[in-house]
Specification:
Helices cover 72% and strands 0% of the residues. The protein is mostly helical.
Length: 140
């Protein structure tokens, strides 16, 4: 029983790698070459999706702002028309104010506000043609 048994060494011979290893290495190299393309495609598709989301968000915001803008423009136009009317009134009041303090028009202003007239003036009352006919028929 003391026979010497041939020892089996766990090392294999290093002559040539098996075919499976060569095929798997080639497949890995192909995958490595394809991965940058996939990474670029993934990056570009992510950018496109994010930009599309931003466009949708900005478009929806603009759609909401358009009616608000129209309402504000309508209010602004209303205010502008009121300002134009008030400016006309202010201009008339300025003219009246300057007339009130004009010494040459003092007598005219007193007559206008008091209703009195000079004794040497006559009051003229304008009548329509229909009123004149009615007045003449009343006075026989």
């Amino acid at each position: 029983m003391n026979a010497i048994q041939p020892s089996r060494s766990p090392l294999r011979s290093v002559s040539s790698p098996p075919k499976q290893r060569v095929a798997s290495r080639r497949a890995k190299q192909r995958q490595l070459k394809r991965r940058p393309d996939r990474a670029i495609a993934f990056e570009l598709s992510t950018k496109v999706v994010i930009n599309a989301l931003l466009i949708i968000a900005s478009a929806s915001t603009l759609i909401k702002l358009v009616p608000y803008h129209r309402v504000q423009q309508a209010k602004l136009n209303g205010i502008r028309s009121e300002v134009a009317q008030i400016e006309k009134r202010v201009d008339q009041l300025r003219v009246d104010f300057s007339n009130q303090f004009d010494p040459q028009q003092t007598m005219e202003n007193m007559q206008e506000h008091s209703g009195r007239i000079y004794p040497n003036q006559r009051r003229i009352v304008w009548m329509n043609s229909g009123d004149a006919a009615g007045a003449s028929s009343q006075n026989p």
